[in-house]
Write a structure and sequence with these properties.
With 363 residues, this protein is of the alpha/beta class. Helices cover 33% and strands 29% of the residues. The protein is elongated. Pfam families: M20_dimer, Peptidase_M20.
């Protein structure tokens, strides 16, 4: 089996064995077994999932990161783990790069980081806390891109992800009989006010942002009770970390005003913050040159600005001197990331593996 075929075989295994954030137990075991079979030095952790492997010799360390977790979503009417974000492909491409480099003479150490819980926005922090960045000067990530961003065969040296965060809130009003609405404080009225308020949030159109309700839970099975309490959640995104702070302030002020207007209590917390990309010009230029060497100028795309978020960027937030960039792989991916039926051209896996190998060699 050649490297292209082996990379596809890795993908097929991970695709058919998805595991959600912090529960990537069998995925970790499989990755460790692969490293053992290849004779690659590696270690796992007693308290979290994930694998760190290393090849080569020398004082200098460059690294590449792949995320491991799947989403929990409904697929054909069944709730299940599903690799609709392409992390199965990311692992396969990084493993393919390892295969291309394993028998090469290396004057530096190349570290392979298989990270849990990207979908929760904090798995990278667990790897940082466990030494994944110790001694690392350059770090690269990789991710398949939807077809509207990059077609198959195109590769970008940098993804400029936006910032993302969740808000989880609770409304506490007063239940009432359906015939006596004046005796209650209707949480559904408050939800409607929050929804309308969020449609009135405006910042400069030259920088992308969004804020929307993504979860509402209120009431029971009795249709003659006006519910006084509700739980709600928001997904909030912006292209920069600075704008994210302004968004959070405006939303917090708005929720306070709505609570006062409706005479209810609204409590909330911000969770699972993911920072916007801080792309290193140095890392991007190295990646650009390696892509051109591997695929040619015509296949080398410009940096992509995307509203999606990725906890990869915590690595540079926590280690500002790190030279980091995430590589985007065009794969004709459709209907889109996180769609339960997401699919892509599997030939992109070998493209990604070869590009990553050449970037790591050139760094």
């Amino acid at each position: 089996m050649n490297i292209k075929q082996q990379t596809l075989a890795y993908f097929n295994h991970f695709h058919t064995h998805p595991e959600v954030s912090w529960k990537e137990t069998e995925t970790t075991k499989k990755l460790a077994a692969i490293m053992t079979d290849l004779g690659v030095k590696h270690h796992t952790f007693s308290d979290v999932t994930g694998v760190i492997a290393e090849i080569g010799q020398g004082d200098e360390v460059v690294a590449v990161r792949a995320d491991m977790d799947a989403l929990w979503q409904e697929v054909d009417g069944i709730l299940q783990a599903n690799h609709s974000c392409g992390h199965d492909a990311n692992m396969a491409m990084v493993l393919g790069a390892l295969l291309y480099l394993k028998d090469e003479p290396l004057t530096k150490r190349v570290r392979f980081i298989f990270q849990p819980a990207e979908e929760l926005g904090n798995g990278s922090l667990s790897m940082i806390a466990r030494g994944a960045m110790d001694g690392v000067s350059h770090l690269y990530g990789v991710h398949l891109r939807p077809i509207e961003e990059l077609p198959f065969g195109q590769v970008t040296p940098a993804l400029h992800h936006g910032s993302g965060i969740f808000l989880r809130g609770k409304i506490t009003g007063v239940d009432a009989h359906g015939a006596r609405p004046h005796q209650g404080k209707n949480a559904i009225d408050v939800i409607a006010a929050i929804h309308q308020f969020m449609k009135s949030i405006y910042f400069s159109p030259f920088e992308s942002y969004s804020a929307k309700l993504t979860h509402i839970q209120t009431g029971g099975d009795s249709l003659n009770i006006i519910p006084g309490s509700a739980h709600f959640s928001m997904d909030v995104r912006s292209q920069s970390n600075e704008l994210m702070k302004e968004l959070q302030q405006k939303i917090g002020d708005g929720l306070g005003a709505i609570a006062s207007l409706h005479d209810v209590d609204i409590t909330f917390e911000w969770t699972d913050y993911t920072p916007a990309a801080e792309v290193s010009e140095t890392a991007m230029q190295i990646a650009d040159a390696a892509i051109r060497k591997t695929l040619g100028d015509a296949a080398t795309a410009a940096p992509v600005h995307t509203t999606g978020a990725d906890d990869f960027h915590f690595y540079t937030i926590k280690k500002p001197e790190l030279h980091a960039a995430m590589i985007g792989i065009g794969a004709d991916l459709s209907p889109g990331l996180h769609h339960p039926d997401m699919d892509f051209n599997h030939d992109a896996l070998d493209i990604g593996a070869r590009v990553l190998a050449n970037i790591l060699k050139a760094t």
